[in-house]
Amino acid sequence: MSSSAHCSGSKFLGRLKSPICSSNAEQDDHQLPKFEHFGEAVEIPHGPSSDATLECVRVDMMQNENKSDHHCHLYEGKNNILIVRRAQEFQMTLQFNQPVNPSDKFQIEFYIGIDTNVFNGTKIIVAFDGSQTGNWTGRMIQEQGDECVVGITPSADAIIGKYYTNVAVISDNGISRTQKDSGTDFYLLFNAWASNDEVYMPNEEDRQEYVMNENGCIYQEESGGGRQWYYGQFVEGILDICFQILDDSHMPLVNRGDAANICRIGSAMMNSQDDRGVLVGNWSEDFSNGTAPTFWIGSDQILLQYASKGPVSYAQCWVYAGTLNTFLRCLGIPARVITNFNSAHDNSGNIITDLVFNSVGNQLELNERLTRDSIWNYHCWNEAYLSRLDLPADQDLGGWQVVDSTPQETSDGYFRCGPCSIKAIKEGMLGYQFDGPFVFAEVNSDVYKYTLNTQTGKTELLSVDKTYVGKKLVTKSIGGNNYEPMDITETYKYPEGSSKDEETMKNAERTYKSHMQYDDEQGVEMTLEIPQERVKSGQNFQMAVVFRNLSEDIRTIHGLLVGSTIYYTNIQRAQFKQETFDVTLNPMETSRVQVVVLAQNYVPQLGCQSNLRFVVTAKSLENNQDMMAIQIVNLKGPDLAFAMSGPAKVNQKVFVKVEFTNPFPFSLRDVRMAMQGPNFISYRERLYSVIAPGASITWMESCVPTRSGNTMIYAVLDCSVLGNVQGNWAIVVQA
């Protein structure tokens, strides 16, 4: 659809006279008449008027003062356009051709879009005679000679977007307006500092983290490992792109004052699955037509590319989450990225995760008829902080809301998820919009494990695990450069087995699940123990299969261990190990079977993501008890080393160096590297055709810091057989 079709067009065949305006961009060419005679369709303010030929000759939006007061001073832009937040006063200076008399009448008019109307909030008139035509208010702060300083307070539910401004002087004959001037345009955003805004966040430390912080960490391992991410919500051009995304979604302007609606549209538009949104997903190993998901440093390059070329290739869950986080924070909605470890994907909608295994312990592929559900090693989504005015007030379901843009399942016809109240998920109240059952299953579904009898084709229930899914949920700790993970599992679920947990499950099962009984008290407990220290890729390591005989009888165990390389979505890439063993357990005895894992076996099968999965199936011969245990090993990739030629100072050249050594016994080919540092070094890339075994490369770049204070240098390395190699370096730029 062309941009002009958003608001008007002769081919419109809807039930309205014309389409509802859904473009914030069209107004740039829209010009109101300079003079309107009374008798035309104009709003006539009450009160006396003057015959004096008063005229407004200059409007000063007081950008610097207002942007600082509204916490918008970090937004970068060449035109220094005003950016303010709703439900908070901003000031304007109006200069007239003569001093303003008490009998003179003037008003300020604000417009968003075209075909504006005072009744739907797209046209706002602020008068200074005590009359009011909308929810915005104005006051006279100071009058001195021919200048007036006025204060304007947008309503707490005002439409967010780009407004243009006219000053209108009213005489007996009509209304005389200033001509449209881009210098008086301004952006209006959500306001986490205003108590009557639906995104209000009461704690200043939280606001600094979840609205103002440009740097984050997206965790991919329970131990706290992951990748630091540059959100860049204040980078020049990003704010315009975020509003372009809303225009591209054809979201009506009149709906853009509702944060829940913005979150839902953002969730749909971050993926290109059904609406040519921002990012194209790819969970294969062929990224030849785009950029590997592991190569992105942050959101700014993604959004800038989208604005110029359309959907950007490629993304996986953390890329979607990082980019949506930028979108939300840029518009003023407090947001953070969440990682859920052992995240279930319930395809069947029964909030149970059914996994079917064949006789050698490998999970069947997800397109198999018997196992449509899956459990990802981790999954990243977003939380947005809203009061949820669309939900019953007596339920108190505001606060953090799940918003997920990774295209997994459709919601109301589009690939999107949320906003979904975390409080509702914790209590098992799954009837409230949006997408409660799906989110609940991700964090709290029971896992039913089946084995497939290849002779009969039937499945047999092997075990039920109530603790595997949603093992741990984390987000970045509060504090600018504090990259420790914060465990937020308790915000989603009560402790397993507690009375409150049982109550939650009953609430959830009442509508969405048929209860299945399973007796797992059969005498022997089996677990897998992996090294406490993170294993480096290319190292040998040991693990153990642990059996505990909780019965007073001897148990003879026959077991099978299968090791595979996998994608983080738990899809098998290749099997590299298979080992059988037999154990005899005396009553109440514990026994460990040591398993040696050799790098020479798994390294050739790794691919670009370093995850190993071990599945052990075992049977107690005396009573036919079946057991199964699954354990994921995340391998640590090689490190990047940083150095700098001297102290970093504003406007002074300094050299940054990144070093990498290939630790593998094979060459790395077509290696891409990227480097970026906010307000320090612009985004740069370099390609190395080959890095021999044991060889080192050194990449040095000159840069000139532009702002003092704390910043971060990000670097990443990627090739077809090695992903997730990235590093960062925190530095302080001196004034």
Automatic annotation (TrEMBL):
Transglutaminase-like domain residues: 309-407
SUPFAM superfamilies: Cysteine proteinases, E set domains, Transglutaminase, two C-terminal domains
Alphabetical list of InterPro entries matching this protein: Ig-like_fold, Ig_E-set, Papain-like_cys_pep_sf, Transglutaminase, Transglutaminase-like, Transglutaminase-like_sf, Transglutaminase_animal, Transglutaminase_C
Pfam families, alphabetized: Transglut_C, Transglut_core, Transglut_N
SMART domains xref list: TGc
Family membership: Belongs to the transglutaminase superfamily. Transglutaminase family.
Protein name: Coagulation factor XIII A chain-like
Natural source organism: Salmo salar (Atlantic salmon)
Gene name, Swiss-Prot/TrEMBL: LOC106578576
